[in-house]
Write a structure and sequence with these properties.
Layout lengths: L4 H32 L2 E2 L12 E2 L2 H16 L4 H22 L4 H16 L7 E3 L9 E3 L4 H18 L6 H20 L2 H21 L8 H19 L7 H9 L1 H16 L12 H7 L4 H25 L1 H22 L1 H22 L9 H4 L7 H16 L1
Antiparallel strand pairs: 1-2, 3-4
Helix pairs in contact: 1-2, 1-7, 2-3, 2-7, 2-8, 3-4, 3-8, 4-5, 5-8, 5-10, 6-7, 6-8, 6-12, 7-8, 9-12, 12-13
Length: about 400
């Protein structure tokens, strides 16, 4: 293994420092959120909470992360640029949580923050060719390196922000993703990246008691965009630089849940003629709630999915493609079986609704047959005599009643 007991011990200390600072800072930040009016008031169906809850919890996460990072991480030019970009993201988030900013303005500032580390060497320069039939093992991005790196950072930053729709969801998914990246960074001998990811995991865990359902505080855009920014930049430093077939697959596996949800949301909105930035109630967590799951069940389900993807990425790094595929298949099967055992009523109800919708759609597609005319109107003689007998019986009954 590429790491020793000493490195692991320091990484754990960095994690504990970030966790303690984040936990202790959360009540302080909570009081500050009330003073500045950074309160999330439920105004529409997208919000799952019923009472106003303070935001700005991301400041507590940021505080724990920064103190631990400054204590344990070597301040190289690349690392300084990452931290400076993170400060810009956090300042933008604090302003947005206090007073809603236009989406276009936030997008421009996020691009500027992503350019800071990109122009200081934190770039995706080479990654493996996904075309297995090609003779070129790697793609050298050349001049496309800067725009693609900025695109990656901004995309992941907003992906984590978009899944922040249930208590503890974005925080937990980010913790799982950062933990998997931490294991891979240790295996690859990336010391500074390991300390940064340990600080991120500890800061998220320290905030978790206040963020789990029922949440006492939200991380807001301050925390969600900050987590996405650090995960994006650290994936470049620790994963894309590993020149093997996994350099293309591993970051997408670890961050697969937020990336898939964001991509699906964009295509869905465009298909409905809406702006890609238009907020709606069609995210994965909303669909799980609509299936009948409560918040805790929906969050636990998405935790399991994120863990399956992350573990597959770790095995892909250490054991190769075949073992990773076998593990992924086995975990998916185990997850499906567990879902049927834990949520049998919800799954049956959802299947029943799907079958009902399918039958209704099939019946609507069938051409309607015209009604058959009575024998008297069709011009055909009534050979059965049934209609005349019924009329006679009707007269007899009416006579008796009268």
């Amino acid at each position: 293994m590429a790491f020793g007991n000493t490195l692991v011990a320091y990484v754990l200390i960095a994690l504990l420092v970030a966790m303690v600072v984040s936990f202790l800072m959360t009540p302080v930040v909570r009081s500050f959120a009330y003073k500045v009016g950074a309160i999330d008031v439920p105004r529409d169906a997208r919000r799952m909470h019923k009472v106003p809850i303070p935001r700005l919890g991301g400041l507590a996460i940021f505080s724990g992360f920064m103190i631990s990072t400054l204590l344990f991480v070597s301040m190289t030019p690349e690392m300084k640029s990452v931290l400076l970009g993170a400060v810009v993201i956090v300042v933008l988030g604090v302003i947005d949580d206090s007073m809603a900013l236009p989406a276009a303005l936030k997008f421009v500032v996020q691009i500027g923050a992503a350019l800071i580390p990109t122009l200081h060497g934190v770039t995706i320069q080479v990654f493996s060719n996904p075309n297995i039939f090609s003779d070129d093992l790697y793609w050298n991005l050349g001049q496309l390196s800067v725009p693609l790196t900025v695109l990656w950072i901004v995309a992941v930053t907003n992906s984590v922000n978009l899944i922040d729709g249930l208590d503890g969801l974005a925080n937990g998914v980010s913790t799982i993703s950062a933990s998997m990246m931490l294991v891979i960074a240790l295996l690859l001998g990336e010391t500074d990246v390991s300390f940064v990811l340990a600080a991120l995991v500890g800061a998220c865990v320290g905030f978790m008691p206040y963020n789990l359902n029922p949440a006492k505080m939200f991380m807001g855009d301050t925390g969600a965009t900050f987590l996405g920014f650090i995960l994006a930049t650290m994936s470049i430093q620790g994963l894309f630089k590993y020149y093997a077939v996994i350099s293309f697959v591993v970051p997408f596996l670890i961050l697969g849940l937020p990336i898939f949800d964001t991509t699906f949301a964009f295509f869905r909105r465009i298909a409905h003629g809406q702006s890609p930035m238009h907020a709606d109630r069609g995210h994965i967590h909303h669909r799980l709630i609509d299936m009948g799951l409560n918040q805790k069940q929906a969050v636990a389900t998405l935790y399991v999915i994120s863990a399956i993807l992350g573990l597959s990425a770790v095995v892909l790094t250490t054991g190769g493609e075949q073992r990773a595929m076998l593990l992924f298949a086995a975990l998916c099967i185990a997850g499906a079986v567990a879902a049927r055992l834990v949520f049998p009523q919800e799954i049956r109800a959802e299947l029943k609704n799907e079958i009902g919708d399918w039958r209704e759609h099939r019946n609507n597609d069938k051409p309607s047959e015209p009604p058959k005319p009575p024998a008297q109107l069709s011009g055909k003689p009534d050979t059965t005599g049934k209609s005349s007998k019924k009329r006679k019986r009707g007269k007899k009954k009416s006579g008796k009643k009268s």
